Amino acid sequence: MSIQPLMAQEVTLEGQVIDAVTQKPLRAITVVLKDQENRIIAFKATDAQGYFKLTTVKDIANGYIEINHLSYKKQRIRKQTDDSDGSIYYFTRRGAAEK
């Protein structure tokens, strides 16, 4: 009898990052998936249309996505294992008036 190692299920989170004011997609924005202890699980920069796709086999329960760029306010968005809906994230420039 041989025992096969269990393969972890792959989880993919994808979305698009858009400027909150101009409504234009943002390229080269860093999107980081972190676990509940703030350790990096996966990261990717957005493409020319603002899209990103993060894939991991690690447990992301209670994890979050952090969206960051020098010109914009850092965002942290809580994610769940079954939350891979292709969300749109609106990103606000630093110094922009709060509404």
Largest sheet: 4 strands, antiparallel
Reading side by side through the largest sheet, how are the strands ordered? Answer: 3-2-5-6
Gap between N and C termini, in Å?
65 Å
The radius of gyration computed from the alpha-carbon positions, rounded to a whole number of angstroms, is 16 Å
Helix coverage percent: under 10%
Order of helices and strands: EEEEEEE
Number of strands: 7
**Mean pLDDT across every amino acid position:** 81
Shape: globular
Structural class: mainly beta
Count of DSSP-assigned helices: 0
* Low-confidence segments: 1-5
Beta-strand content estimate: 35-45%
Protein described:
The chain is mainly beta and about 100 residues long. The chain has no helices and seven strands. The chain has a four-stranded antiparallel β-sheet with strand order 3-2-5-6, with no helix packed on it. The radius of gyration is 16 Å and the shape is globular. The N and C termini lie far apart (about 65 Å).
Structure at a glance:
The protein has 99 residues and is mostly beta strands. It has strands at residues 11-19, 30-34, 40-45, 51-56, 64-68, 75-78, 87-91.
Core attributes:
7 strands, disordered N terminus, mainly beta, 99 residues, 3-stranded mixed beta sheet
Draw up the topology in text.
Blueprint (H helix, E strand, L loop, with lengths): L10 E9 L10 E5 L5 E6 L5 E6 L7 E5 L6 E4 L8 E5 L8
Parallel strand pairs: 1-7
Antiparallel strand pairs: 1-4, 2-3, 2-5, 5-6
